[in-house]
Amino acid sequence: MKVVCMKLFTDFKCTGSYCRHNCCKAGWDIEIDEKTLRRLKHLGDESLEAATVREADGVFIKPVNGRCPLLNEQGLCSLQLKYGEDYISDICREHPRYYQWFGDYKEAGVGLCCEQTVKLLLESREPLGFYQYETDEAPDDLPFDEEVLAVLVEARNALLRMLEDRSLTIEERLKRLLFHGQRFQDALDDEDVEHIWQEIGHLDARCEMHDELYTEHDPDDVAGEIYDYFLGLDMLGDELPRMLGFSLAKADIRQALQTFDKLHPDKAYITEHLAVCFLFRYFLQAVRSFEIMEKIKLTVLSTLVMRIMIACECAPVEDIIREYSAEIEYSADNLEKLADDFYSEPCFSYDGLMSLVG
After folding, report:
1. Residues 176 and 203 sit within 8 Å (Cβ to Cβ)
2. Which residues contact 34 (CB under 8 A, 6 or more apart)?
3. What CA–CA distance (Å, rounded) separates 327 from 349?
4. What is the edge-to-edge ordering of all strands in the sheet holding 58-61?
5. Best exposed site among 54, 173, 261, 318 by fewest CB in 10 Å?
6. How far apart, in whole angstroms, are the C-alpha atoms of residue 262 and residue 245?
7. Which helix (H) or strand (E) holds 90?
């Protein structure tokens, strides 16, 4: 199997109980995968059985006072200490690592909800690296269109190269991301794979953008609508709403975006890194969903919202990134709501996001 992973993935090491925002204390339901569940049933551990809850969509360990009930006083997993790593669920073993499979092709990365991932991200001012290697892992058997995978891998890679092209401003890169993403989507809707290949060539050649469909909206109105929308989402904690509210109170969000690189030259690389992380993680999901622009909009929107909060200095940069990821990326309900509303909310339209980028 061919594996492509982010360098962040290979560099990542969990800090366990030393983590300030331990994922075992995040208030999340922990799903127990079937393989682990079978092993646990043979233990006959009454305290473990008391901590598990069976629901229609699986078996979960539910948090108690915002933390996993299996944590001991030192913040360590009592289940792993007692029985070994083979008895903890896949999500506990792998988090914040993520994977996606397409036959004999696999990708791997690490999520931004983890403070150690964010630490690694912020330490690297150079473009984020990727590795490729082979394993003897058996191919995945979920169906997909191999022709679509081939062209979307190349389209995504071309977009990544463009996002890391520092001869362009970050505003130019995000505009090109929207521009070419929309053209990839139009071609995929028309089942015209050859046109996607042609568009990849235009993207790599940095051809001039001729966007006769783009009608500018008032960027301040768009920013306000987006922030109001985010404040209406269901969130586990109070920190992200506080950060959003603080940023919204700033007089000129548009100016904060435009002057970001000038006023915060030591943070200019962060916007690029965020866009690269989101695009790498989500774009290839379109191989099965065929919703390219849904992934592009999530990338641009998330990058801009975090860029605004960083510009407004509402909290330390690492906390802004981690909180946004935890509350938005790691909430299935919020991701699903965004995916639906990308097609109905004017502030999430192609024109709206283009106007906000500048």
Report:
1. yes
2. none
3. 22
4. 30-32, 58-61, 52-55
5. 54
6. 24
7. helix 90-94
Q: Which residue has the tokens 């000129």?
A: 252
Domain extent listing, the chain: 5-10+96-141, 12-91, 150-357
In this structure, what token pair is assigned to residue 23?
A: 């994922």
- Dihedral, CA of residue 137, residue 141, residue 144 and residue 145, to nearest 10: 70
Phi-psi region of 13 (alpha: psi -120 to 50; beta: other; left: phi over 0): beta
Grouping H, G, I as helix, E, B as strand and the rest as coil, residue 41 is: helix
CA distance 18 to 115: 11
Q: Both tokens of residue 157? A: 């890679």
Report pTM. 0.90
Say if CB 240 and CB 323 are below 8 A apart.
yes
> If phi over 0 gives left and psi between -120 and 50 gives alpha, with beta otherwise, what is residue 214?
beta
∠ CA 340-347-277, nearest 5°, is: 70
User: Which value, to the nearest 10 degrees, does the dihedral of the CA atoms of residues 189, 192, 198, 200 take?
Assistant: 40
Among residues 250, 356, 230, 239, the alpha carbon closest in space to that of 304 is found at: 356
Annotate 172-230 with DSSP letters as a single string. Answer: HHHHHHHHHHHHHHHHHHTT-HHHHHHHHHHHHTTPPP--TT-----HHHHHHHHHHHH
